[in-house]
Amino acid sequence: MQKLVKILLRIAVVLAVLIALAYVTGNGYLVRGVRYTYLIGRTSPEIDDRDFFPSDPIAATNAQPWTRHAAYGKVTLTPDQDAELQALHTAGFLVLQDGELLYEKYYDDWGPDVASNSFSVAKSYISVLTGIAMREGVITDVMTPVGNYLPEFAEGCHADITLYHLLTMSTGLDWSESGADPFSDNAKGYYGYNVRELSIDQPCRDQPGTEFDYISGSTQVMAEVLETAYGRNLLDLVQEKIWTPLGCEDTAWWGKDRRGGDYKAFCCLYATPRDFARIGQLYLDSGLWRGTRIVPEEYFLASVTPAPVQDKGKPNRRYGYFWWLAELDGRPIHYCRGFHGQYVVVIPHEGTVLVRTGTEREEVNEEGHPNDVFQWIATARALAAQAKGA
After folding, report:
1. Of 336, 244, 221, 227, nearest to 294 (Cα)?
2. Residue 200 vs residues 76, 204, 227: alpha-carbon distances, Å
3. What's the pTM value of the predicted model, to 2 decimals?
């Protein structure tokens, strides 16, 4: 018994030393990360981790429920389609057709009023908010230097970085983007306690405006620009300028690095599939919401046009302003994309929006898109075809 006690004491001492070392070396975020992953049987962030971090609510004050399509409740998945959705641990799958709710299905304990983490889908909301700032004249030119808003970017190599470079992920900054490496900047931003300092302190690596390099720090800095430009915090801006005008039905939450700290703008918007679908419908209608202009048409078009930068040795074809771009049957589509296969996909030429939430996705193909996103597109199109024949 005494031997066991000694072993346990030694383990406790080692853990205490490791924890102290993590904080002393500026890696205290690792303690939080281990606590909310490995110690509870996980290996990465998950869509149901809102209660692990501070967050603030975004209230649904102007709920506009979706009109149900005439074929709602009549169209169904095939057994194979359902199996495919379950194989990648889908939480929710929803399809809008011509602005109406055509189909939705939820798995396990997920439901229409249960919010989940969107991860990098949140980046597209920062794009929309930037467009709104353009419409309101708070930001007048995306070619404006970031240093005009954030003094930390006013000197040295950072002085050449513009809002355009942030929006197009072409800043040339050296942020380590990884969802698996516990020492990456992503892990520091997600589990750390000072996301603003982390994003502001990114060192320069390349000339801005030359290469597409997807880094979450760009979105975090853009959110800080918006907060400075408006003199208001991100949550208030999203509540007033997106959540309320778009008639969101349910309360959402935006995660923070610490109580009284900063919003993790690059990742952590928790909402329901029905409300995520609204940003898709907004972009299906070219920045209009039920006839009211929310995002300027010029900005909308620029945001879904490939930025003229290089992408791994060839011209960029897959990214605009915090929106992913692809083609379907030779015609353009655009979509939001999250770490675990969170998608909001807009198919303009077919009047379709789909939302998929879940905990797993497939690897990206040679064109830089996860293979499963096209799988869900095929399923949504099949449902829309059923509706036409119903």
Report:
1. 244
2. 48, 11, 14
3. 0.94
